[in-house]
Structure formats: C-alpha cells, structure tokens
Amino acid sequence: MPEDPSGVVTPTRPVNVLIVDDSATMRMVIRRVIDLAEVPIGTVYEASNGLEAIRILEASSVHAVFTDINMPVMSGYELLTEIARREAWKDILRIVISTDGSRLRQEEVRELNVNLYIRKPFRPEVVRDVLSRIASTHNR
Questions:
Q1: N- to C-terminal Cα distance for the chain?
Q2: What is the pTM of this model?
Q3: Structural domain tally of the chain?
Q4: I need a labelling partner for 22 at 20 to 30 A (CA). Which of 5, 74, 129, 140 fits?
C-alpha cells in the first residue's frame, strides 16, 4: 500500500477501465493483459464501438479508456472527440490501440488529449506499463 507524506499507509484505489474495440478477440487480449498487470483494477468495461462506450461512460465511473480508431457505428476518433468535449470526462486517461499508426492519425488524436498511442500488434508489457502509470497517478 502507498504511504502518504505523514507515513500513514493508505489503501490503493482500483482503476476502472473501458476497452473499446470492434474485435471481440482484441478486447479479450487487452482484458487478459489488464488482468495480468500487477495493478489494482476495479471494473473492466467493454464496448464494440464508440456509441456503446459513451453509454458506459454516462452510466459508470471510468478512469482510463483504451480505444481502437477504426470501428463501425462510431469511430474511436469520434469517441475521443466526445470525451474531450465533455467537462465531466476531462480527467479520463485516453489510450489509443490501433493498427493505424500513421503520423497524420497520431497528430489528429493528440489534439484530443490522447495520453498514449500504441500500435497493433503490441507487446503486453507496453499495456502493463501504461496501467502502472495510470494506477500511480490515480492514487496520488
């Protein structure tokens, strides 16, 4: 457990995560990596497109969103635009995991306060390290 400056041990707050990808297989892979990360994870939500993700965000407390870009119904770019637009969601950490790693795409999402852009295929350690950083920031 982390210690605050007074030396008191404080409990670690779990991080709630939302995985948004139209591929059920990719959601399962990301979820498995999250489960293996040695960080306190609360609820892991899943959505197959941006519209489903918005419904989850409106009804739940989410600290981090892992999203693909290219999805039907509502793309990850449209989802990130909506997250950036809403004041209530300004503190949600935004991580893109996508096969589209073009410089243009990365610049587009950077303007939407994306914290990290991970290209598929990815090494599980990359996601684990991101979760560790999220957990340490979340528990300050």
A1: 12
A2: 0.82
A3: 1
A4: 129
Asked if residue 24 is part of any domain, the answer here is yes
**CATH value at residue 84:** 3.40.50.2300
Peptide bond preceding 2 in cis form (omega within 30 of 0):
no
- Domain contains 87: yes
What DSSP state is assigned to residue 7? S
Q: Is 10 among the domain residues?
A: no
Q: Return the structure tokens found at 112.
A: 């939407």
User: Whole-angstrom Cα distance, residue 140 to residue 98?
Assistant: 29
Phi-psi region of 113 (alpha: psi -120 to 50; beta: other; left: phi over 0): left
Residue with tokens 């993700």: 53
Tell me the per-residue pLDDT of 21-77, one tens digit each, with 9 for 90 and over: 999 999 999 998 888 877 888 999 999 999 999 999 999 999 999 999 889 999 999
Residue 91 lies in domain: 15-135
